[in-house]
Fold this protein.
Amino acid sequence: MDPDNFSTFLHEAVHHLKDLNKKCEEEFRISSWPRWDYNLDRGTLTFSQDGQPKVIASIQVVGSTSLSSGTWLWSWANQSFPPCVTREVEKVRAFGELENLPELTQAKRPTDEHMGWEMTAIAAKVLGAKGAYRCPGENGLVYVIYSSLAFVQ
C-alpha cells in the first residue's frame, strides 16, 4: 500500500470506528456508566454503576501509549499483556507485513495525541470489531477493541 492509499485507508478506518463507537453509545450507553474495570486474564471490560455490572465486553488489547516515553507500543510486543488479549491483534501485524506498512509492524513508535486512536481504528477495521475504548492507566492509555458487548442480566 502506498502512502496515499494508506492515508485514505486510515481516514476511512477512523470514521468507521467513530460510527461503531456511536452505535455502542446509543445501544449500550457506554459513557453513562461511572466505572469500568478490565480483567485481562478473562479478556473482558465491564462497565458498572453502584457496584453492579451493567455491560460486559469481550476485548482485545490493541496497544498502549506511554506518557513518560512518548511512545505507542503494540500489544503483541508488550509482554505484560496475556496472550489471550493480544492474539487477534497479531492479524493486524500480519496485514501490515502484507501491505508493507511499518506503522503496523514496528513494535514501538513515537506517538502523538492521535496515534493510539488511529492504530485502534485500523485494528478495529482489520478485525471487524464492534467498537473501542481507551482506558487511562498509571503512565498512559490502554486501547482496546470489543469483539462483543452485552448487557449483564
